[in-house]
Specification:
By secondary structure, this protein is an alpha+beta fold. The protein has three helices and five strands. A five-stranded antiparallel β-sheet has the order 1-2-3-5-4, covered by helices on one side. Strand 1 and strand 2 form a beta hairpin. It is globular. The model has no long low-confidence stretch (mean pLDDT 95). InterPro entries: HINT (IPR039384), Histidine_triad_CS (IPR019808), Histidine_triad_HIT (IPR001310), HIT-like (IPR011146), HIT-like_sf (IPR036265).
Length: 140
């Protein structure tokens, strides 16, 4: 894809701080550095989001994530945790439409990063939950 910033990074048209690369996967430091070591892991094949992955691409990309996560942990001994984030489509805060996984090291509760999840469980009856699960199963 000619207008994709991540494709340009892969093709060395735009510089990046590479932390890992193989035939199918490219990982580099996110220029925002939400926290020290914030890394993006991307497939070299241009896919917009998770909905365009096939099983082989998913297995290839996601199998590299633990290796890179362990490298972050070894590199930053003060790291106390790690967030893995994958945003898909604009409503879910995807801003670059080349699929990517954020590995965000966590150092303390005060490291300027937070995620909260609303608890809406009481909005659904057990019958509605069972119906949701049934519908999803039927579509797998």
């Amino acid at each position: 894809m000619t207008d994709c910033i991540f494709c340009k990074i892969i093709n060395r048209e735009i510089p990046s701080y590479t932390v890992y690369e193989d035939e199918d996967v490219y990982a580099f430091l996110d220029i925002t550095q939400t926290t020290k070591g914030h890394t993006l892991v991307i497939p070299k094949q241009h896919v917009a989001d998770i909905f365009e992955y096939d099983e082989k691409l998913a297995a290839t990309l996601f199998s590299k994530v633990p290796k890179i996560a362990r490298a972050l942990e070894k590199s930053f001994p003060d790291m106390e945790g790690l967030n893995l984030i994958n945003n898909n489509k604009e409503l879910a805060y995807q801003s670059v439409f080349h699929s990517h996984i954020h590995l965000i090291p966590r150092y303390s509760k005060e490291d300027d990063f937070s995620i909260t999840f609303a608890n809406n469980g009481d909005k659904y009856t057990s019958e509605e939950m069972a119906e949701m699960a049934k519908t999803i199963k039927e579509n797998i």
